[in-house]
Amino acid sequence: MSTKGDRLRVMVLFGGRSAEHEVSLLPATNVLETARLLRN
Question: Distance (Å, rounded) from C-alpha 36 to C-alpha 40?
Fold first, then answer.
């Protein structure tokens, strides 16, 4: 249970050196955008 003023810290890891690099960018962007929208 959290109280007003508590903040959740989230780290999103994506990318890296592999053939999957481009594939990981879209879901990471979606997660970051959703977190930004839900922040308030």
Answer: 8
Q: What is the pLDDT along the chain (40 residues), one digit of tens a residue?
A: 555 667 778 888 887 788 888 888 888 899 999 988 988 6
Q: Which two tokens mark 7? A: 């903040």
Do the Cβ atoms of 35 and 10 come closer than 8 Å?
A: yes
pTM greater than the 0.70 cutoff = no
Give the list of residues 6+ apart from residue 31 with CB closer than 8 angstroms, or none: 12
